[in-house]
Amino acid sequence: MHTNRKAQFNLLLFLSLLIAILGSCDHQQKKQEKAKNASADDPLEILMHGNSHFAELKPEHPDEDLNRLKEVSKDQHPIAVIVSCSDSRVSPELIFDQGIGDLFVIRTAGNIIGNLELGSIEYAVEHLGVKLIVVLGHESCGAVQAYLKGGDAPGHIRDIVDSLKEESEIQNTALNDQNRLDKCVIANIIHGVNKIENQDGIVHEKILKKELQVIGARYDLENYKVQIVKQ
Ligand SMILES: [Zn+2]
After folding, report:
1. How far is the CA of 219 from the centre of ligand 1 (A)?
2. Are the C-beta atoms of residues 156 and 104 closer than 8 Å to each other?
3. Measured in angstroms, how far is the CA atom of residue 7 from the centroid of ligand 1?
4. Ligand 1 centre and the CA of 159: distance in Å?
């Protein structure tokens, strides 16, 4: 009798555990499906979702197989323009966990945006129908550090430093700020967003029609996360 009761108790315990596990799997699956659906047509959500995979060291490496290569061999439909720093640790496809044909990437040291970069942005907006532009700066940017160091930069590096020097957003940062480097990194990102938004022509028209969004983001080298700093 005693043994039977114990067996019954164990069976009940097993069943409740099973129900709890199945319930949790179902919940997890629903959560994943929801995340997938929510991001299905919002490029910013797709990027942030991809970055969360990357930051958790669980990248999915989508769109890298033979099918994808064949699919994009005739045509491209990237979901976003990323204007990022050339820094070797800030690779947009990797940190947003995207693949071939997903991102239209423009890179310069310090994510400086001049006329050539604006031309590339306009091409992506007008001809490829991109609806999101991300200006992506990062923690401890070498270009911003070179500007803060002052002095004479050699060769064309001077052009980068001079360009940063002219940014009113950087000029408006407090000189005695303990965290000046990061404040200037963010100011430089905001400058990039403002510069794109204030261009006449196709980009401006699309922004007015709410068909195009420009955002600023900062990548953290320590926690691998992208944080939106201007939206
Ligand atoms: Zn940089």
Report:
1. 10
2. no
3. 65
4. 15
Quick one: residue 164, left, alpha or beta (phi over 0 = left, psi -120 to 50 = alpha)? alpha
Output the CA–CA distances (angstroms, integers) from residue 84 to 135, 138, 146, in the order listed.
6, 9, 17
Give the chain's residues under pLDDT 50. 1, 24-25, 27-28, 30-39
pLDDT value at residue 151: 85
Give the model confidence (pLDDT) of 1-38 as tens digits. Answer: 455 666 666 666 565 555 555 554 454 454 444 444 44
pLDDT of residue 37: 47
Residue with tokens 């099973």: 18
Q: Is the domain defined by 41-230 classed in CATH 3.40.50.720? A: no
So where are the chain's domains? 1-38, 41-230
The pTM (predicted TM-score) of the whole model is 0.82
| DSSP alpha helix (H) spans, the chain | 2-38, 43-55, 66-71, 92-95, 115-128, 142-149, 157-165, 168-171, 180-197, 202-208
Query: Helix (H, G, I), strand (E, B), or coil: what is residue 134?
Result: strand
